[in-house]
Every structure is written in structure tokens, then in C-alpha cells.
Amino acid sequence: MSNFVTVILAAGKGTRMKSKLPKVLHKAAGKPMLQHVLDAANKGGAERNIVVVGFGGDVVREAMGDQAEFVVQTEQLGTGHAVKQAAPLLEGFDGTVMVLCGDTPLLTGDLLNKLYTEHKEAKAKATVLTAIMPDATGYGRIIRTEDGSVARIVEHKDATEEERKVNEVNSGIYCFEAKDMFEALEQVGCDNAQGEYYLPDVLEILRDKGEKIWAVAADDYESTLGINSRVQLSGAEAILRRRKNIELMDNGVTIMDPSTTYVDCDVEVGSDTVIYPMTWLEGKTVIGENCKIGPSCRFSDTVIGNNVTAHFAYGHECVVDDGVDFGPYVHLRPKTHIGNNVHIGNFVEVKNSNVGEGTKLPHLQYIGDSDVGKNVNCGCGTVTVNYDGKIKHRTIIGDNAFVGCNTSLVAPVTIGEGAYTGAGSVITKDVPAKTLAIGRAHQKNISGWHDKRD
Ligand code: UD1
Ligand code: MG
């Protein structure tokens, strides 16, 4: 099956967002709206994506990188004018163009593929994706003839009272045969209520030429919703999150309270993992199988293995291997790698560190810029003193070492394999393997002190 090229309209200002950020870059479920559209297009079979930008074009281009080609529409003269801007990039292209809008984050690859497949099967020159809207106000209405075929699309502002009663609307998404579309666009005028070049006029022009135009109805209107305001954005967010939770549950993940579980679209979770309430899984986070996550965990761009237990914890840009348990009140910061079967207890922060298999960080610690070996025990209150006010230094703790409670490890410093530090030590020099280091004042007992005081 051949593929199609998309032209994604994203030049509008998005005035109602009241934002300095271009509308299509606002995020829904952790991803810019335009990214959702590109992802759906690619899943649906797009071989090439062209984005028409205007307001904030450079920012949009930068955010999307090489995922698409870009053309600029300097003046927003209407959707027909916008599509025309892609003509130079599609010179000589003889296939199907799918026109999309950059502000429809709920589209799915399946829906776009259905539109394209039915367009091809119908051998139509133009096919519009329609939806039945509970409230069609503002949308272009699909005007059908008595035999049920599409006659034309009339914009809300141009429609008669009778036409406004139609609740089948133009989703703003279409497939066109490229050559016929660009030819017809030459004939589109702007004699209408908004003084704009309307893309939907192409349908009537093609029909008048005797060409076949077709319509595909979306199964649910939600998928086609365009976002114009922050209120609508929050609606899209809720739908995306609901979909994601359902996808996870259908794939064997238990979500105790979907209404307080916020999972971004690209997150992966393995089967038999249980997600407890008030949990956020963001960005490119991957959670393995048979984990217990939450309550109250937030993980961003974090990779977690199998059989991990985490509660009341925050991790970002870090890796946690199998069998680790951590929390409550744990903060795993970027560039941290926690090895298999590590135990991390309450009030522990780990940053830019590697922690070896089987090591225990049970209570109240700061481990920063460190390489901690295997089966190390860091007593309560272990602190790596990693910063001298100018530079961060590393701490190295060898396998099987035992760091006594309230030890300050003043970096750069190395604790050898199997070495010990006495509780309350301030360690400023390297400790050789299997050695006990005590760096604290000797205790002095003054007898009779109580009586002498009085
Ligand atoms: C459009 C359709 C309407 C349909 C609705 C679906 C037209 C004339 N009408 O109306 O039938 O029901 O979408 O949401 O097409 N854009 C540009 N350049 C422009 C104008 C618009 O890039 O010069 C972009 C916008 O950024 C937006 C998309 O095209 O992403 C749609 O434009 P918008 O102004 O929202 O059209 P509607 O009035 O909603
Ligand atoms: Mg619109």
C-alpha cells in the first residue's frame, strides 16, 4: 500500500491561549500538541510531513527538529492559502496529501489510516473526515445532497439558520489527490464572511468539475477535537490520560485509582505492576514488570527494572535496576544508577552516582557524585561532602565497605573495599581496604561534673 504526505497547518496565532508560546507547542499529557499530530501521522502511514508555520515559526521548527519539513505562511489568509504554501515542496508529487491541523492532539494513527484507506478505496479526489458534534457551533457544516453525498462545506459564519442545525461537521482533516487539490486551490476566492481563502471550498470546486468527493465519519468526535483555549487543553489532557490508563490496564497493569494516576503517552509499564494513587509517570519513563509504584511517586525519564518497590519517591533521568526498594521520601536525581537489589530507605537523596548491587542506604543520607560499590552499608546520616564551593568532587566507596552513622565523606576521597568508618567521623583522607578509620574527637568523661557544677 502506498503512503501519503501530510501538510499540517500550524500558522495560526492561537490568540485564545493567551500565551507567548505558539499554540501547537502547548503540551497535553506531556507532549506538544504538534508532536501528537506528527506521531499519529507517522503511525497512520505518513511518509513525509510538512508543517506550515507562521506565528512563532522558528520556535516550532526548533522544537520539532528534523521530524518534519517546514514552510512559512507569512500572512494568515486562510486554510486554503496555508496549504498552498506547501506547493513548492510538493512540485511534481502525484500522490495523496493529507491535510491536518497542528492543534488536534487526540488524533490516532488508526483513524488517519482509516481516512486514507477509505479515500483510496473510494477512488475519490478529496475525502473529508467528519464528526458528529454535540455542539457544532463554530465548525464548518457538512452539507449533503439528497443522495447522501457531500455537496459542500459551509463555514459557521457563512451558514444559514437551517444549515447551522446540521451537527455533522468538518474536522478540518482531509485527503486530497495532490494535483487536483493544487489546481482547485487556484480557483478558491475569499468572498466570504471572513475574507479568507477557505480550504473546504476545494471540495465544491472538484465536485462541480464532476470529480468524486467523499466523506469518512469518525467513530467518536473526541479524536478530532481542535484545541483553542486552555480549558479545551485540559479537556484533551483528561482524554489522553484516560486513554493511556486504559491501554496500560488492558496490558496487565493494575491502576488502583485512575483518577489520580497521570501517565504520559510514551511511558511503558510492564505487566503485573501495580500503580498506587497520586503517581506521575512522565516523559520517556519505563517501568518493568511486577513493580509496586506509589503511592505518591513521580518519575520523569526514568528507567525502572522488574520487581521494584517505590513509594513517596521522585526520580528523574536515572536508572533503577531490578529488585530495588526505595522510599518513603527519596529523591533520585539525574545521572544516577541504582544497581540490583539495593535498599534505599527514608529521606535519602542520590545524585550523579552509581550504587552497586545489594548496597543499603537506609536512612537520612546524601550521596552525590559518588561511586558506591556492592554490598556497602551506609549508616544513618552518611553525607558525601562533594562540593568545596567551586568544584564538585567524587567519592568512591569500595565493595563491602561499612560507613558508620553520621560519617561525612569529604571528597575527593576513597573508602577501600571492606573498610569501616567510625560513627560520627569526618573522613578527609583515603581509607585503605579492610581498615577502620575514625576521624572524631576522643571522648572524655569528667567524673563528678554534675556535683561540681552547682
Ligand atoms: C476550520 C475549517 C472548518 C472546520 C474547522 C475544524 C476552514 C475555512 N474551516 O475552521 O470547516 O470545521 O477548521 O476545526 O478551513 N491556519 C493556518 N493559516 C491560516 C489559517 C489557519 O495555518 O491562514 C491553521 C490554524 O493554525 C489551525 C488550522 O489552520 O491549525 C485551522 O484554522 P482555524 O482558523 O482554526 O479554522 P476554523 O475557523 O477552526
Ligand atoms: Mg479552529
Distance between the termini: 98 Å
Counted by DSSP, the helix tally is: 9
Major sheet attributes: 12 strands, parallel
**What molecules are bound to this protein?**
uridine-diphosphate-N-acetylglucosamine, magnesium ion
What is the strand tally? Answer: 39
- Report the mean per-residue pLDDT as an integer: 96
Name the helicity range. 10-25%
Could you say what the CATH topology of the largest domain is called?
Spore Coat Polysaccharide Biosynthesis Protein SpsA, Chain A
- Content-based structural category: alpha/beta
Determine and state the CATH class of the largest domain. Answer: Alpha Beta
Strand residues, percent = 25-35%
The number of distinct structural domains comes to 2
3D shape: elongated
Q: Give the second-level CATH assignment, the architecture of the largest domain.
A: Alpha-Beta Complex
